[in-house]
Amino acid sequence: MNNNDFKIALDETGKGTFKLFENGAELGFMLISLSGNNVTIYHTEASKNLKDEFVTLNRGIGQKLIDSVVKYARVKSFKIIPQCPYVYNHFRQNSKEYKDIWNRGWDF
User: Fold this and answer.
1) Based on the structure, what is the number of domains in the chain?
2) Is 0.90 topped by the overall pTM?
């Protein structure tokens, strides 16, 4: 069983990273900002040391990042503004699953 954990590091303006770890190793990160009850996601990326492994083993790191940030948003009663094209497209394709946390007041 994998042990997934995340860490959020923000600067004084509320901008920073949402990093996902599995068994202590960083899987990937999102560039985010927190403002009010919104989490804005700007970029999603697998860790550089896993990119080749991500492609060849199809580990689904992007999906794991989305699942983790969505879980975080639901626990904190936050809404997500998906400015990252990857996250936006995933939300759009699965809109019913995310209707409770998707801040649709913002759109591309």
Assistant:
1) 1
2) no
